[in-house]
Amino acid sequence: MDLIKNVKDLIIGERSNTDQIREACQELILDDKKINEIMARFLKEIQLGLKKETHAKADIKCFVTYVQDLPNGKERGKFLALDLGGTNFRVLLIHLKGDGDFEMQSKIYAIPQSIMLGSGTQLFDHIAECLANFIKEHKLQNERLPLGFTFSFPLKQLGLTKGFLIRWTKGFNCEGVVDHDVVELLEEALKRRGDVQIQICAVLNDTTGTLMSCGWKNHDCRIGVIVGTGSNACYVERVENAEMYDGPDNGKTHVLINTEWGAFGDNGALDFIRTEYDREMDEFSINKGKQTVEKMISGMYMGELVRLALVKFTKAGLLFGGQGSDLLFKRYQFFTKYVSEIEGDRPGSYFNCYDVLEEIGIFHATDEDCANVRFICECISSRAAHLSSAGIATLINKMDEPSVTVGVDGSVYRFHPRFHDLMMEKIRTLVHDHISFDIMLSEDGSGRGAALVAAVASRDAQ
Fold it and tell me: Could you confirm whether 170 is annotated as catalytic?
């Protein structure tokens, strides 16, 4: 027996660092069986969110947006858009000229950390000041322009211009905003200034903006998805299935639903695929126990998930000869852009990887280390792409239309070198055979989309 044990120990001892890392990373790879189970659970959660009886306890809230008309390409006029969804926000002036022709001017404004964690009054006063400055720069003080307000946080809407914040995400934690109408808070901030004329026509989520922006050019667009700092999706649902819709019966058969899918898994539905990295990430987040799938997909967390894996394998002596660096061991210092850069290296080349490792203070990496770092990045980014694909495919199958275009925006989708291809490949294996689909990058989606919602609302009012 001792001889057998010694031989086993010898065999285990001969396993390379690469073999051990690849074996440990298998838990990050979603096979077809797991993806099919994720899709079944996701559909069940969507249905709970749509029904009156179960909406209150559903994790995926499926909020009604009250947007019922998609653009027809003939919208005309000047419109403002305010796009708030992360550490920066944009103000846009969009001149729609009809038939897909438009002019757009925009400016990005920063939100300091102190305001992100300060009071709601400070936040909306800051936004109102930037809006006023933009309007003055473009000499629009004497015009009363319709504005579409993209507010990319979980929002319960009671109408096209009434939306109550459910909870902050993406590192925001402003007091006095949760459970308040964000349109009213912005209007009050503008009123305190009294120097600009703005008519807020609609409040919407960035996914709605993405869908509207793509729908302006492609009338098959039925789903809007964001994979950026956060992650979410909206889609077109039949009014009869949207039991929470309480708007007027105007004979319109469909309404846009903001799923808020980032909360999928908050009730434990995804525990069967969560790893120690996901659990540690959640433990040290400012919204512990919330936005479970968002923490597995989005750009705010992807780099940190990779860092946690790198730390584990370094401490186990499998990476970098067991020697890390101060930055490697510091939370949130391995940025998601590093993941895209490392995966952007040509096969067999580690130029970007060496650069990234040197940026975080690791100067002693080998080619084997770089190959393993790249593999860890690929496992975590592929999992994110496949989770996104599972959600999109579920929505496509649920709508069951012959042809569907999916509008996608967000920094992860835009800048990760493989994300689009991973999604196309995976969704193709998951949607019903009789459905054709395409994925379309949304250009200035959440901004232009906000202006288009305002334009459609103005068109309807007229």
Answer: yes
